[in-house]
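User: Can you help me understand a structure? I only have the sequence.
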Amino acid sequence: MNEEARSQPTKILYVEDDPSSVTLVRRVLENEGYQVIAVEDGLSAIEVTERERPDLILMDINISGLDGYEVTTKIRNIPELSAIPIVAVTAATLKGDREQALIAGCNGYIPKPIDVDRFPYQVRAFLLGMREEVESLEEKTEYLIEYSRKLVDRLEKKIRELQKANEELQRIDKMKTDFVVLAGHELRTPLTVIYGYTQLLLDNPDIPGSEDEEGAPRYLIAQVAHATRRLSQVVEDILNVSLIDADRLELAQGPVSLAPLVQNTIQNITSLGPERNLTFEVEGLEDLPPVVGDGQRLRQALWNVISNAMKYTPNGGRITISGRQVENAIHLK
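Assistant: Let's start by predicting it. Here is the structure, written out as C-alpha coordinates:
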Protein backbone atom coordinates (compact mmCIF):
# COMPACT_ATOMS: atom_id res chain seq x y z
CA MET A 1 0.00 0.00 0.00
CA ASN A 2 2.82 2.41 0.96
CA GLU A 3 4.81 1.43 -2.12
CA GLU A 4 1.77 2.08 -4.29
CA ALA A 5 1.28 5.52 -2.68
CA ARG A 6 4.95 6.36 -3.26
CA SER A 7 4.64 5.38 -6.94
CA GLN A 8 1.97 8.02 -7.47
CA PRO A 9 3.34 11.33 -8.88
CA THR A 10 3.28 14.34 -6.56
CA LYS A 11 0.10 16.26 -7.25
CA ILE A 12 0.28 20.05 -7.56
CA LEU A 13 -2.74 22.33 -7.96
CA TYR A 14 -2.03 25.54 -9.86
CA VAL A 15 -4.63 28.30 -9.43
CA GLU A 16 -4.11 30.70 -12.33
CA ASP A 17 -6.36 32.46 -14.86
CA ASP A 18 -3.63 33.28 -17.39
CA PRO A 19 -3.30 30.43 -19.96
CA SER A 20 0.29 31.28 -20.88
CA SER A 21 1.38 31.11 -17.23
CA VAL A 22 -0.40 27.77 -16.84
CA THR A 23 1.34 26.39 -19.92
CA LEU A 24 4.78 27.48 -18.69
CA VAL A 25 4.37 26.15 -15.13
CA ARG A 26 2.83 22.90 -16.35
CA ARG A 27 5.71 22.32 -18.76
CA VAL A 28 8.38 23.04 -16.16
CA LEU A 29 6.82 20.89 -13.41
CA GLU A 30 5.72 17.98 -15.59
CA ASN A 31 9.31 17.72 -16.85
CA GLU A 32 10.24 17.19 -13.20
CA GLY A 33 7.69 14.36 -12.87
CA TYR A 34 4.93 16.28 -11.06
CA GLN A 35 1.24 15.95 -11.89
CA VAL A 36 -0.23 19.44 -12.46
CA ILE A 37 -3.92 20.29 -12.11
CA ALA A 38 -4.90 23.82 -13.17
CA VAL A 39 -8.02 25.82 -12.28
CA GLU A 40 -8.92 29.41 -13.13
CA ASP A 41 -10.86 30.78 -10.15
CA GLY A 42 -11.11 30.68 -6.38
CA LEU A 43 -14.26 28.62 -5.96
CA SER A 44 -12.97 25.96 -8.35
CA ALA A 45 -9.72 25.89 -6.37
CA ILE A 46 -11.58 25.08 -3.16
CA GLU A 47 -13.70 22.38 -4.84
CA VAL A 48 -10.71 20.72 -6.54
CA THR A 49 -8.65 20.87 -3.33
CA GLU A 50 -11.41 19.06 -1.42
CA ARG A 51 -11.71 16.44 -4.15
CA GLU A 52 -8.10 15.89 -5.24
CA ARG A 53 -6.19 16.61 -2.00
CA PRO A 54 -3.06 17.95 -3.77
CA ASP A 55 0.39 17.79 -2.17
CA LEU A 56 1.02 21.49 -2.91
CA ILE A 57 -1.03 24.47 -4.09
CA LEU A 58 0.49 27.24 -6.20
CA MET A 59 -1.82 30.22 -5.77
CA ASP A 60 -2.10 33.29 -7.97
CA ILE A 61 -3.47 36.21 -5.98
CA ASN A 62 -5.37 38.21 -8.60
CA ILE A 63 -8.00 35.68 -9.68
CA SER A 64 -11.73 36.07 -10.26
CA GLY A 65 -14.36 35.61 -7.56
CA LEU A 66 -12.54 34.92 -4.33
CA ASP A 67 -8.98 36.20 -4.64
CA GLY A 68 -5.91 34.15 -3.72
CA TYR A 69 -5.74 35.55 -0.17
CA GLU A 70 -9.37 34.59 0.54
CA VAL A 71 -9.03 31.11 -1.00
CA THR A 72 -5.93 30.47 1.11
CA THR A 73 -7.69 31.59 4.29
CA LYS A 74 -10.68 29.39 3.45
CA ILE A 75 -8.54 26.29 2.85
CA ARG A 76 -6.63 26.93 6.08
CA ASN A 77 -9.95 26.80 7.96
CA ILE A 78 -10.92 23.38 6.57
CA PRO A 79 -9.33 20.94 9.09
CA GLU A 80 -8.61 18.12 6.66
CA LEU A 81 -6.97 20.55 4.18
CA SER A 82 -5.19 22.91 6.55
CA ALA A 83 -1.81 21.12 6.35
CA ILE A 84 -1.49 21.41 2.54
CA PRO A 85 1.33 23.84 1.74
CA ILE A 86 0.19 26.86 -0.28
CA VAL A 87 2.65 29.08 -2.12
CA ALA A 88 1.70 32.43 -3.63
CA VAL A 89 2.95 32.65 -7.24
CA THR A 90 1.98 36.14 -8.28
CA ALA A 91 2.86 39.35 -10.08
CA ALA A 92 1.75 41.28 -6.97
CA THR A 93 5.23 42.42 -5.97
CA LEU A 94 4.61 45.75 -4.27
CA LYS A 95 5.81 46.39 -0.74
CA GLY A 96 3.70 44.36 1.64
CA ASP A 97 2.32 41.88 -0.93
CA ARG A 98 4.59 39.08 0.32
CA GLU A 99 3.62 39.74 3.93
CA GLN A 100 -0.10 39.85 3.04
CA ALA A 101 0.24 36.42 1.41
CA LEU A 102 1.95 34.97 4.47
CA ILE A 103 -0.61 36.52 6.84
CA ALA A 104 -3.43 35.00 4.75
CA GLY A 105 -1.90 31.56 5.34
CA CYS A 106 0.56 30.98 2.50
CA ASN A 107 3.71 29.00 3.31
CA GLY A 108 5.77 31.05 0.89
CA TYR A 109 5.89 33.56 -1.90
CA ILE A 110 7.34 33.27 -5.44
CA PRO A 111 7.18 36.43 -7.57
CA LYS A 112 6.39 36.41 -11.29
CA PRO A 113 7.86 36.05 -13.78
CA ILE A 114 9.17 32.79 -12.43
CA ASP A 115 12.79 31.77 -12.90
CA VAL A 116 12.38 28.47 -14.77
CA ASP A 117 15.77 27.25 -13.54
CA ARG A 118 15.10 27.96 -9.83
CA PHE A 119 11.39 27.20 -9.86
CA PRO A 120 11.60 23.36 -9.52
CA TYR A 121 13.99 23.75 -6.54
CA GLN A 122 11.63 26.27 -4.90
CA VAL A 123 8.68 23.91 -5.34
CA ARG A 124 10.66 20.98 -3.94
CA ALA A 125 11.68 23.03 -0.90
CA PHE A 126 8.07 23.88 -0.05
CA LEU A 127 7.04 20.24 -0.56
CA LEU A 128 9.71 19.30 1.99
CA GLY A 129 8.27 21.65 4.58
CA MET A 130 9.93 25.03 4.07
CA ARG A 131 7.89 27.92 5.42
CA GLU A 132 8.53 31.64 5.22
CA GLU A 133 7.51 33.91 8.10
CA VAL A 134 6.85 37.58 8.67
CA GLU A 135 9.98 38.82 10.46
CA SER A 136 8.68 40.71 13.53
CA LEU A 137 5.62 40.37 15.74
CA GLU A 138 4.88 44.08 15.34
CA GLU A 139 5.00 43.81 11.56
CA LYS A 140 2.86 40.66 11.65
CA THR A 141 0.20 42.42 13.74
CA GLU A 142 0.21 45.40 11.41
CA TYR A 143 -0.31 43.25 8.31
CA LEU A 144 -2.94 41.14 10.07
CA ILE A 145 -4.96 44.28 10.85
CA GLU A 146 -4.56 45.45 7.24
CA TYR A 147 -5.65 42.06 5.91
CA SER A 148 -8.73 42.06 8.17
CA ARG A 149 -9.65 45.54 6.95
CA LYS A 150 -9.35 44.45 3.31
CA LEU A 151 -11.58 41.44 3.97
CA VAL A 152 -14.24 43.66 5.53
CA ASP A 153 -14.01 46.11 2.62
CA ARG A 154 -14.43 43.30 0.08
CA LEU A 155 -17.33 41.86 2.05
CA GLU A 156 -19.03 45.25 2.08
CA LYS A 157 -18.44 45.61 -1.66
CA LYS A 158 -19.90 42.17 -2.38
CA ILE A 159 -22.96 42.89 -0.22
CA ARG A 160 -23.57 46.14 -2.11
CA GLU A 161 -23.20 44.30 -5.43
CA LEU A 162 -25.69 41.64 -4.29
CA GLN A 163 -28.15 44.30 -3.14
CA LYS A 164 -27.85 46.08 -6.47
CA ALA A 165 -28.28 42.81 -8.38
CA ASN A 166 -31.33 41.96 -6.25
CA GLU A 167 -32.88 45.36 -6.96
CA GLU A 168 -32.30 44.84 -10.68
CA LEU A 169 -33.88 41.38 -10.53
CA GLN A 170 -36.91 42.82 -8.74
CA ARG A 171 -37.19 45.54 -11.39
CA ILE A 172 -37.02 42.98 -14.21
CA ASP A 173 -39.54 40.76 -12.43
CA LYS A 174 -41.94 43.69 -12.11
CA MET A 175 -41.48 44.46 -15.82
CA LYS A 176 -42.29 40.82 -16.62
CA THR A 177 -45.43 40.90 -14.47
CA ASP A 178 -46.55 44.21 -15.93
CA PHE A 179 -46.03 42.87 -19.44
CA VAL A 180 -48.02 39.70 -18.76
CA VAL A 181 -50.86 41.71 -17.22
CA LEU A 182 -50.88 44.16 -20.14
CA ALA A 183 -50.71 41.37 -22.72
CA GLY A 184 -53.53 39.54 -20.94
CA HIS A 185 -55.77 42.59 -20.99
CA GLU A 186 -54.95 43.22 -24.65
CA LEU A 187 -55.85 39.61 -25.51
CA ARG A 188 -59.11 39.79 -23.62
CA THR A 189 -60.57 42.46 -25.94
CA PRO A 190 -60.36 40.55 -29.26
CA LEU A 191 -61.31 37.29 -27.55
CA THR A 192 -64.42 38.95 -26.11
CA VAL A 193 -65.32 40.30 -29.56
CA ILE A 194 -64.79 36.92 -31.24
CA TYR A 195 -66.85 35.12 -28.61
CA GLY A 196 -69.62 37.74 -28.78
CA TYR A 197 -69.97 37.51 -32.55
CA THR A 198 -69.91 33.70 -32.53
CA GLN A 199 -72.76 33.75 -29.99
CA LEU A 200 -74.71 36.13 -32.23
CA LEU A 201 -74.20 33.77 -35.16
CA LEU A 202 -75.25 30.76 -33.08
CA ASP A 203 -78.40 32.62 -32.04
CA ASN A 204 -79.24 33.23 -35.71
CA PRO A 205 -81.74 30.57 -36.85
CA ASP A 206 -80.67 31.07 -40.49
CA ILE A 207 -77.30 29.42 -39.83
CA PRO A 208 -77.70 25.89 -41.25
CA GLY A 209 -76.89 22.66 -39.49
CA SER A 210 -76.59 21.87 -35.81
CA GLU A 211 -73.80 22.13 -33.24
CA ASP A 212 -73.49 18.33 -33.20
CA GLU A 213 -73.33 17.93 -37.00
CA GLU A 214 -69.63 17.78 -37.81
CA GLY A 215 -68.71 20.02 -40.74
CA ALA A 216 -71.93 22.03 -40.70
CA PRO A 217 -71.64 25.85 -40.48
CA ARG A 218 -73.27 25.94 -37.05
CA TYR A 219 -70.93 23.21 -35.82
CA LEU A 220 -67.87 25.12 -37.03
CA ILE A 221 -69.04 28.35 -35.39
CA ALA A 222 -69.68 26.48 -32.14
CA GLN A 223 -66.13 25.09 -32.27
CA VAL A 224 -64.75 28.62 -32.66
CA ALA A 225 -66.84 29.73 -29.67
CA HIS A 226 -65.65 26.81 -27.55
CA ALA A 227 -62.00 27.39 -28.49
CA THR A 228 -62.34 31.09 -27.72
CA ARG A 229 -63.74 30.35 -24.28
CA ARG A 230 -60.90 27.93 -23.63
CA LEU A 231 -58.29 30.45 -24.77
CA SER A 232 -59.88 33.08 -22.53
CA GLN A 233 -59.54 30.66 -19.64
CA VAL A 234 -55.85 30.07 -20.43
CA VAL A 235 -55.21 33.83 -20.57
CA GLU A 236 -56.99 34.23 -17.23
CA ASP A 237 -54.85 31.48 -15.68
CA ILE A 238 -51.64 33.10 -16.93
CA LEU A 239 -52.76 36.43 -15.50
CA ASN A 240 -53.57 34.87 -12.15
CA VAL A 241 -50.23 33.07 -11.86
CA SER A 242 -48.41 36.29 -12.71
CA LEU A 243 -50.42 38.29 -10.17
CA ILE A 244 -49.93 35.65 -7.46
CA ASP A 245 -46.19 35.64 -8.13
CA ALA A 246 -46.14 39.43 -7.78
CA ASP A 247 -48.38 39.32 -4.67
CA ARG A 248 -50.88 41.52 -6.48
CA LEU A 249 -53.86 39.16 -6.81
CA GLU A 250 -57.02 40.73 -5.39
CA LEU A 251 -59.73 38.43 -4.01
CA ALA A 252 -63.43 39.22 -3.86
CA GLN A 253 -64.48 37.40 -0.69
CA GLY A 254 -68.04 36.24 -0.27
CA PRO A 255 -70.23 33.18 0.42
CA VAL A 256 -69.92 30.48 -2.26
CA SER A 257 -72.10 27.39 -2.65
CA LEU A 258 -69.91 24.56 -3.86
CA ALA A 259 -72.54 22.23 -5.38
CA PRO A 260 -73.76 24.59 -8.15
CA LEU A 261 -70.22 25.84 -8.69
CA VAL A 262 -68.94 22.30 -9.33
CA GLN A 263 -71.89 21.40 -11.56
CA ASN A 264 -71.49 24.58 -13.61
CA THR A 265 -67.76 23.98 -14.00
CA ILE A 266 -68.36 20.40 -15.21
CA GLN A 267 -70.93 21.61 -17.76
CA ASN A 268 -68.60 24.31 -19.08
CA ILE A 269 -65.63 21.97 -19.44
CA THR A 270 -67.53 19.13 -21.08
CA SER A 271 -69.13 21.50 -23.58
CA LEU A 272 -65.75 22.59 -24.90
CA GLY A 273 -64.23 19.28 -25.92
CA PRO A 274 -65.24 16.28 -28.02
CA GLU A 275 -67.72 13.78 -26.62
CA ARG A 276 -65.83 11.26 -24.49
CA ASN A 277 -68.71 9.60 -22.62
CA LEU A 278 -67.23 10.43 -19.24
CA THR A 279 -69.45 9.95 -16.19
CA PHE A 280 -69.25 12.51 -13.39
CA GLU A 281 -70.43 11.61 -9.91
CA VAL A 282 -70.83 14.43 -7.38
CA GLU A 283 -71.19 13.27 -3.77
CA GLY A 284 -71.83 15.10 -0.53
CA LEU A 285 -71.75 18.67 -1.88
CA GLU A 286 -75.45 19.45 -1.37
CA ASP A 287 -75.08 19.03 2.41
CA LEU A 288 -72.11 21.35 2.73
CA PRO A 289 -72.50 24.90 4.04
CA PRO A 290 -71.40 27.84 1.87
CA VAL A 291 -67.71 28.67 2.06
CA VAL A 292 -66.18 32.12 2.21
CA GLY A 293 -64.00 32.77 -0.83
CA ASP A 294 -63.68 34.29 -4.27
CA GLY A 295 -66.18 32.46 -6.48
CA GLN A 296 -64.35 33.26 -9.71
CA ARG A 297 -60.99 32.05 -8.37
CA LEU A 298 -62.57 28.90 -6.93
CA ARG A 299 -64.16 28.19 -10.31
CA GLN A 300 -60.77 28.54 -12.00
CA ALA A 301 -59.17 26.22 -9.47
CA LEU A 302 -61.94 23.63 -9.97
CA TRP A 303 -61.62 24.02 -13.72
CA ASN A 304 -57.91 23.19 -13.59
CA VAL A 305 -58.37 20.19 -11.30
CA ILE A 306 -61.33 18.72 -13.20
CA SER A 307 -59.78 19.28 -16.65
CA ASN A 308 -56.61 17.57 -15.40
CA ALA A 309 -58.69 14.61 -14.16
CA MET A 310 -60.40 14.40 -17.57
CA LYS A 311 -57.04 14.39 -19.32
CA TYR A 312 -55.94 11.24 -17.48
CA THR A 313 -59.28 9.44 -17.54
CA PRO A 314 -59.90 7.08 -20.50
CA ASN A 315 -62.98 7.49 -22.70
CA GLY A 316 -66.06 6.12 -20.99
CA GLY A 317 -64.42 6.44 -17.58
CA ARG A 318 -65.80 7.78 -14.32
CA ILE A 319 -64.73 10.85 -12.34
CA THR A 320 -65.98 11.23 -8.77
CA ILE A 321 -66.02 14.57 -6.95
CA SER A 322 -66.84 14.37 -3.27
CA GLY A 323 -66.84 16.82 -0.39
CA ARG A 324 -66.98 16.67 3.37
CA GLN A 325 -66.64 19.04 6.28
CA VAL A 326 -63.73 18.50 8.67
CA GLU A 327 -64.11 20.82 11.65
CA ASN A 328 -64.00 24.34 10.14
CA ALA A 329 -62.67 23.25 6.75
CA ILE A 330 -64.21 21.80 3.59
CA HIS A 331 -62.33 18.99 1.87
CA LEU A 332 -62.96 18.33 -1.83
CA LYS A 333 -61.47 15.38 -3.67
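Now, to help you interpret it: The two ends are 63 Å apart (CA to CA). Residues 42 and 66 are 5 Å apart (CA to CA). Let me know which part you'd like to focus on.
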